[in-house]
Hints:
The structure holds two protein chains of two kinds. Chain A is globular, with a radius of gyration of 13 Å. Chain A is 0% helix and 50% strand. Chain A has strands at 5-7, 10-13, 19-24, 31-37, 44-50, 53-57, 64-68, 74-78, 87-94, 103-104, 108-112. Chains A and B meet through strand 4, strand 5, strand 9 and strand 10 of A and strand 4, strand 5 and strand 10 of B.
Amino acid sequence: xxxxxQSPTHLIKTRGQxxxxxxxxxxxxxxxxxxxxxxxxxxxxxxxxxxxxxxQRGNFPDRFSGHQFPNYSSELNVNALLLGDxxxxxxxSSVAGYTDTQYFGPGTRxxxx
Amino acid sequence: xxxxxxxxxxxxxxxxxxxxxNCSFTDSAIYNLQWFRQDPGKGLTSLLLIQSxxxxxxxxxxxxxxxxxxxxxxxxxxxxxxxxxxxxLCAVGSARQLTFGSGTxxxxxx
Lengths: 113, 110
């Protein structure tokens, strides 16, 4: 049973560029959440997708957008990259509801130069 | 706005010692609390999940407690081993959104 997978593993971009990160949820899961983890900090919630719609959003600007596909996989897009966007981006999947745990992928390390 | 604090930020102990990691949160209206382990540059591994109606959970040498009324949780690690060295993160909320602390970086010395 495959867990949560993310691609790519590492990514280097320059300021002003756009980036797309991808996530495949754990088998049987229908909900995908994205988190940003800066060095030395805990992850911060970006948004969650369920039934191909953004269901909940954290305190992130509109430069951060996402998409969920019919097979429940998801993409995170970041436009007009800033140096401060350099971080580990984590994807988590879960089953719709309030009480179930979230399962995290290995993350994508984004470096903005 | 939920805020999660973890103390201490870093901890170094000799192998075999029992230790306690602390987590506090400001809003007691939570569905669950999770403890995660993170190795350097890696993703998160869920260690224990405590539902809001529960008081504690145990897995092997790990025991986590939850006191919603005081906004506190502790993670107890028995007989620590060098392989336990990692950052331990506490997160509160629900399956819709988790709020994390900044973590405790644990080093177990052989």
